[in-house]
Amino acid sequence: MPVAITRKVSPAIVRCELTHLARAPIDVERAAAQHEAYERTLAALGCAVVSLSEEPELPDAVFLEDTAVVVDEVAVITRPGAASRRAETASVATALAAYRPLTAIEAPATLDGGDVLRLGRRLFVGVSGRTNGAGIAQLRAALAPYGYTVEAVPVHGCLHLKSAVTQVAPDAVLVNPAWVDAAAFPGFTPIPVDPGEPFAANALLLGNAVVYPEAFPATAAALAGAGVALATVDVSELAKAEGAVTCCSLILVG
Question: For the stretch 190-219, what's the b/e string if a residue is b when 16 or more beta carbons lie within 10 angstroms of its beta carbon?
Fold first, then answer.
């Protein structure tokens, strides 16, 4: 059974980091309720959900995907690009130590997990405002002994690589071609987001279903038309903090 590690919404989320969005009021209670519904969706799709306590002083801690890159053999604890987020990694490392050997990205490297898209034994890493070349090089060195390749991918106009592209089927990716070149992922059929829904490329593939935001009905219709089974969730308050469905969990398989 896959394990999904999550973390409760902090009341400090109203002070979250923002890069590409203007600050808007966040209803903390509604954000917490949406997150709990997201956790229930993960459980309904077969995950054992391990929910960590909130971090009251860390606004972005609910988005714990950025704190680690987990493969079958090891977990790499990241060094987030935003200095305000670096204290988030300690508690995640403690939780992951029960499941994987650990290694860590070291300064001056930076790496956000949201920039890392794993497609089989290949990991694609966005060169973004949060992830630098040293972080990509350290991740490559950490995973090479296990037979993984790590490839840098330019991204433009968005926070992370997985804002622009995610896997939605064994042989397909959902992509915003304005933010990343779909040709960077050979062997995968690109499904473009609807042009009116630029933030619609973030989806979480779990088994035979995809966890997907309710906010993007046109892209959802295109996915359904391509035979993708969707489990839709409302993450509208979390989206105000530049969060999405991959951001809120670390999925461990095996």
Answer: bbbbeeebbbbbbbbbbeebbbbbebbeeb
